[in-house]
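Model the whole thing, not chain by chain.
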Amino acid sequence: MKRYLDRNRRLADYIYNDMDPEERLVIEEEILNDPEFSETHQLNRQVKDYLQAKIQLEEMKSDPQLEDAEQLADMAFDVVSNDKVEQKIIPIGKRKRIRNTTFAAAIAATVAIVISVGIIPSSIDQDRLFDRYYEPIEASDFSQRGESNELYGEIARGINFYTDGDYSQSIDQFSSLASDPALGSEVQFFTALSHLGLGQYQHAQSILVSVLDGDIRYQAETLWYLSLCCLKTGELEKANAFLGQLEIYDGMYKQDAQTLRKKLRRFK
Amino acid sequence: MEKFRDQHIIDSIRRRDDVAFKYLQVKFQDSIRLMVSEMGGSPEDAKDVFSEGLIALICLVDREDFVLNCKLGTLVYALCKKTWKQHLEKQVAVRNYHVRKIDSSPDWDFTEETDQKLYQEIFWECFKQLEEVCQEILEGYLKEISPKEIAEKLGYSYGYIRKRKSMCHGFLLKTIESHPTYIRIKETELTLDIE
């Protein structure tokens, strides 16, 4: 026990640079030759490095001279005019962008504050996880089929709107085809994905559930996007269940589903 | 002393002395990385922000009208913060035109990042739970103030400060290792390793 305490004391002296050069050599050798001690050292070092950065950052943030530093920073980026002047000379389109930017900066600042006081709302992580995994479907094979007949030609038009990112147009196009039972699942599937593209997650989710009930052709894709909708709406258990169903499908979805499930466990 | 050192670094930057850049990197890169991380950026973003911040610093000190009227560290912080804000503005602008997602960091491991953030929260929370004197002693060491100066400031002997520092750090580590979230992450890591 005494040896253990003595070792930890020496380790603290070592990481805080409070040790003679000879003693440093001895402890460095111990770290090198003892895996368990090496692991302890790593954690100690990680804690010390983080606290050092955090304390320095907090000091910078609360420095009374920060305003002077910010003025110099403006000078470095050649920002001569202040916000008011900028708003007077730019056209309406750009004013909108400024509002968005301010909003984004406000969000970033809020996130920073929230994190710094030690609360991370799980939705932030869910959003980031969604952003990481969500991608519009590669629909080239669907649109190629559109050349085969007139009906598929209409579908292909809708899919092209979707692949171009024009989700409102694709929803309009698909709504005109919704009454044809032969196209039901395809139309529903891409309508749902278009809503997903527009950020209408609940809507996308309810359509995808009916696709899942009705047709076996898009099962894997539907399960995948359904799980992402659930992730975004905070229904993590449901997301996990849909991802679990992807186990029987080989390929990309299965692999991504496995990884995503592992990550979801961290939220529980 | 600090003012003198900062001015010396500025002069070295003007001479493009490598030592100055090495100093800036060792001294400030970790806190800038933390700043970017706290504002939602990835480690890769942080690297870019720090490099661009240093380029801005070089441009600034090269100006004839430049006078350092604040701490160098605070200036680096302000430059990097501005760089990061500009980066965010560009991201928003790009999103306005391209609805589809652009993955700027495909290799970024989200799980690692999440764990790292949780660990950092725990470290900070446990540090804040320490006795005030422990916090002051460790803070002194972390700011690289000499133990002698810390002892003088707090009214203790040099030997006591050295011994107390080790005790405080040991207690901090114990608190971290018994933190429920820390234990949970470690257990999850173990489960994933087995899988």
